[in-house]
């Protein structure tokens, strides 16, 4: 059974940090490109960051460059999103996605991140 399970979300003050994790099972994790998305209330889901299969290529949404870092540990079938200098506009539900091709695409259930004083 394929599963992606996010964890690490919560409430944090502006300027604070959180580390999201996404644990994968049921598929060959190291063959998949993995991506973090987020969706704020009333807005479309947007790509936050991606990391290639071997971790040698990453990309970020302009709004998080220099503040967020994506990483993966293929031995643990886990991906991470380190979020620093958080802002209220980072408030959203964060989702992880693993994709092999157009048909083999898996999503996690999402974890809420709220940045507020």
Explain the layout of strands and helices.
Blueprint lengths: L2 E5 L2 E3 L5 E8 L7 E7 L6 E6 L6 E3 L7 E6 L4 E6 L8 E8 L5 E3 L3 E5 L2
Parallel strand pairs: 2-11
Antiparallel strand pairs: 1-3, 3-8, 4-5, 4-9, 5-6, 7-8, 9-10, 9-11
Total count of helical runs of at least 4 residues: 0
The assigned structural class equals mainly beta
Strand content: over 45%
Largest sheet entry: 7 strands, mixed
Share in helix: under 10%
Query: Gyration radius, to the nearest Å?
Result: 13 Å
Written overview of the protein:
By secondary structure, the protein is mainly β. It has strands at residues 3-7, 10-12, 18-25, 33-39, 46-51, 58-60, 68-73, 78-83, 92-99, 105-107, 111-115. Helix content is 0%, strand content 51%. β7 and β8 form a beta hairpin. The model has no long low-confidence stretch (mean pLDDT 97). The protein is globular. The strands form two sheets. Strands 2, 4, 5, 6, 9, 10 and 11 form a seven-stranded mixed sheet that branches. It has a four-stranded antiparallel sheet with strand order 1-3-8-7, with no helix packed on it.
């Amino acid at each position: 059974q394929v599963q992606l399970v996010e964890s690490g979300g919560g409430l944090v003050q502006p300027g604070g940090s959180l580390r999201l994790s996404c644990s994968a099972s049921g598929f060959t994790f190291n063959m998949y490109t993995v991506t973090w998305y987020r969706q704020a209330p009333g807005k479309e889901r947007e790509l936050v960051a991606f990391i290639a299969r071997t971790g040698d290529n990453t990309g970020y949404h302009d709004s998080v460059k220099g503040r967020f870092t994506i990483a993966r540990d293929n031995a643990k079938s886990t991906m991470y999103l380190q979020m620093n200098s958080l802002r209220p506009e980072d408030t959203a539900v964060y989702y992880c996605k693993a994709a092999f091709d157009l048909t083999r695409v898996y999503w996690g259930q999402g974890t809420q991140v709220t940045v507020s004083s």
